[in-house]
Amino acid sequence: MPRSVSKHVGNIRCMKRNDHAYPADELMPLTCRGRVRGLEPSRGDIDDALGKFSLTLIDTLDTLALLNKTVEFEEAVRRVVADVRLDNDIVVSVFETNIRVLGGLLGGHSMAVMLKESGRMVWYQDELLHMAKDLGLRLLPAFNTSSGLPYPRVNLRYGVRGPETRTGTETDTCTACAGTIILEFAALSRFTGDPTFEAHARRALDFLWEKRQRHSNLVGTTINIHSGEWVRRDSGVGAGIDSYYEYLMKAYILLGDDRFLQRFNTHYASIMKYISQPPLLLDVHIHKPLLPARTWMDSLLAFFPGLQVLKGDIQPAIETHEMLYQVTKKHNFLPEAFTTDFRVHWAQHPLRPEFAESTYFLYKATRDPYYLEVGRTILENLNRFARVPCGFAAMKDVRTGSHEDRMDSFFLAEMFKYLFLLFAEEEDLHFNVEDYVFTTEAHLLPLSLSTASNSQAGEELDDSNFEWTCPNTRLLFPDPAFPRNLREPIKSAVDNSCPRPTTHREPGMGRPPLRAQDFMANNPEHLELLRRMGVSLIHLKDGRVQLVQHATQAVSAVAAEDGMRFMQEMMELSSQQQKEQLPPRAVQIVSHPFFGRVVLTAGPAQFGMDLSKSSSGVRGFVTVAEPYKGCSELSNGEIVAGRIALLQRGQCMFAEKARHIQKAGAIGGIVIDDNEGSSSDTAPLFQMAGDGRNTDDVTLPLLFLFHKEGNILLEALKENREVEVLLSDKARDRGERLSKTVRRHEYEKKCYYVRKVVHVASSTFFPF
């Protein structure tokens, strides 16, 4: 088994080459290109991890070294030193940049020093460490607060103050964001001899400790960085808090400061008293810790059994891990969130490594071969369901297996490490990993950074309520049946959870439940059925609609279950329609006076003609359909025939609009968003889905323009009797296929119209 795993993990080499993504921050595995911030549609806070500093390359440095890919590691270090710049005018997450980039540079430095000491990489002169210090100095302005808690974001070039920084106005940060600094900053201080970094990280941890709720000894999820008031007072071990607890324990291991262990154990006792309900870990309110804060768990808590192993508390680690494994087996991957009865709450899975991490630590602690089988399951599912030609793609929905064009850097930084270590034999490792501590991003920091005695004068330690523990790799359970006996009841509980009740349908409903494929958002009868099922329809500002179910608002338990089924069907329908993330298309105005110089970014349809397979695209004059919505037979069909029809979004399905204009003889269609102010500059790419039925009858191309881009086209139509456009997969050369007649139009008139379009949408204008 170790050899097969090493073979799979060894394929990291093909994904580290620059064929597709270098020097971008991340690989987009479905479209086989790099993700560069500002060039792809914004994903919100997720993009704060991207800083135009070759994130994945830096995050993966010590993975290459661990896998004994020394040639590739040396090449990667040279690339980082030569190509990566840190003085970018870009706003990044302090938390993500610290754990991924600073941690990656320090882990890479640790490996480079080790290799140099063994006679390799003799040219290395601490270049990565110098870069790490440069980055640390760029992060320091974020800590300039009265509390010592860092701002959540910082501009790498300008810091946090002043209008040019585009940050520094935030008031809140998550507990983990402020409390997951100490390992990297302390290591930086001890590597460089500059105590500034460690001092700032300690100050932030001290403040969080002081602000804990003194009765429950728990911390909230979000805190005001200026006042220290808890903004979100729910407390758990998952998202928002997770690595704060992890870093208290690991700071003790790395730095030898007893104070961190005392704080961890104080928190841990409260976690086990209030949050742990074996095998579940449920959030509670910090002021009322006996009151649950929610009925679902997020996948980030999967790290906790591994932390319990470091603590030495193996039994609850086995129980929680087994629950997570059974949920994983039901869905192939651990959903981003799941309910207490193990149903999917959030269906995404961005290839998070926390479950593999805990599996590794449990195997190290117990040597139980069961955890090798767990690891095999993880590995096989990755290769069966997530592997794509250019890498591994995140799961958009674990229930349907649909993908997302996303491969976060932590997949290579963490998942590969833990799976390799789980199966590695002693001869597979060319250095002793026990000499290092893993950061939350699985970067390797040497335990030699610890001092013999780092306890500080101050409060007297109270060791009456905790044990002094370190990682334990001995066989803890001589009886192999003991862990199995712990797991069996949990396996049964997950397998048998929530069978469908055999109850009669609610009197008065009297008909089969509404199916997702039949739903029409403008059908009053359908909306009433949704209401009875506890499903509400919310119209978002960007023109989309969102369905939300509250089971307690359904008219009966059966109606609530019908609502849950409807929601799952809707998710599956949506995922089926989005299995392949299509790239944007182009609407290019080619007639006078534009001559192809104005190109509008358009969203594709998941049906109809595939423009990417057409070398010439579809070219024609545009005409507004009547009725404009295109939801019934066109009254101006004789005018639309042979032209590209302009339609407005709304009232019916996109496929229905396409069928109506196709019946009228149109050669293509452009749907313009009815949500005023929407723009491709600020909204993610919109793809028009089918209607849940067979759409093979639609053969013309249909594209989608947001309101801003659509208005440019409509204004051009007002100013000119005829406007000709080219629908294609990408803009053609401005000189291509433009007729001699168009070229002969007077220069002055051309300039007038082009200036007018530039004024309307300068961002989409291509200069002469």
From TrEMBL:
Domain (PA) spans: 622-713
Catalytic positions? E96, D242, E336, E354
Pathway annotation = Protein modification; protein glycosylation
GO molecular function annotations of the record: calcium ion binding; mannosyl-oligosaccharide 1,2-alpha-mannosidase activity
Q: Which cofactor does it need?
A: Ca(2+)
Q: Where in the cell is it found?
A: Endoplasmic reticulum
Report if keyword Metal-binding is assigned. Answer: yes
Query: Which keywords appear in this protein's UniProt record, sorted alphabetically?
Result: Calcium, Endoplasmic reticulum, Glycoprotein, Glycosidase, Hydrolase, Metal-binding, Signal, Unfolded protein response
Q: Which residues bind Ca(2+)?
A: T440
EC nos: 3.2.1.-
Question: Which principal EC class is assigned to this enzyme?
Answer: hydrolase
Which domain of life does the protein's organism represent? Eukaryota
Chief subcellular location = endoplasmic reticulum
Its GO CC terms are: endoplasmic reticulum quality control compartment; membrane
Where along the sequence do coiled-coil regions lie? none
Q: Which reaction does it catalyse?
A: N(4)-(alpha-D-Man-(1->2)-alpha-D-Man-(1->2)-alpha-D-Man-(1->3)-[alpha-D-Man-(1->2)-alpha-D-Man-(1->3)-[alpha-D-Man-(1->2)-alpha-D-Man-(1->6)]-alpha-D-Man-(1->6)]-beta-D-Man-(1->4)-beta-D-GlcNAc-(1->4)-beta-D-GlcNAc)-L-asparaginyl-[protein] (N-glucan mannose isomer 9A1,2,3B1,2,3) + 4 H2O = N(4)-(alpha-D-Man-(1->3)-[alpha-D-Man-(1->3)-[alpha-D-Man-(1->6)]-alpha-D-Man-(1->6)]-beta-D-Man-(1->4)-beta-D-GlcNAc-(1->4)-beta-D-GlcNAc)-L-asparaginyl-[protein] (N-glucan mannose isomer 5A1,2) + 4 beta-D-mannose; N(4)-(alpha-D-Man-(1->2)-alpha-D-Man-(1->2)-alpha-D-Man-(1->3)-[alpha-D-Man-(1->3)-[alpha-D-Man-(1->2)-alpha-D-Man-(1->6)]-alpha-D-Man-(1->6)]-beta-D-Man-(1->4)-beta-D-GlcNAc-(1->4)-beta-D-GlcNAc)-L-asparaginyl-[protein] (N-glucan mannose isomer 8A1,2,3B1,3) + 3 H2O = N(4)-(alpha-D-Man-(1->3)-[alpha-D-Man-(1->3)-[alpha-D-Man-(1->6)]-alpha-D-Man-(1->6)]-beta-D-Man-(1->4)-beta-D-GlcNAc-(1->4)-beta-D-GlcNAc)-L-asparaginyl-[protein] (N-glucan mannose isomer 5A1,2) + 3 beta-D-mannose
InterPro entries, alphabetically? 6hp_glycosidase-like_sf (IPR012341), EDEM1/2/3 (IPR044674), EDEM3_PA (IPR037322), Glyco_hydro_47 (IPR001382), PA_dom_sf (IPR046450), PA_domain (IPR003137), Seven-hairpin_glycosidases (IPR036026)
Q: Name one GO biological process term.
A: response to unfolded protein
Region annotation (Disordered) maps to 492-513
Q: Sorted alphabetically, which PANTHER family does this protein's record hold?
A: ALPHA-1,2-MANNOSIDASE, ER DEGRADATION-ENHANCING ALPHA-MANNOSIDASE-LIKE PROTEIN 2
Give the record's family classification.
Belongs to the glycosyl hydrolase 47 family.
Q: What is this protein called?
A: alpha-1,2-Mannosidase
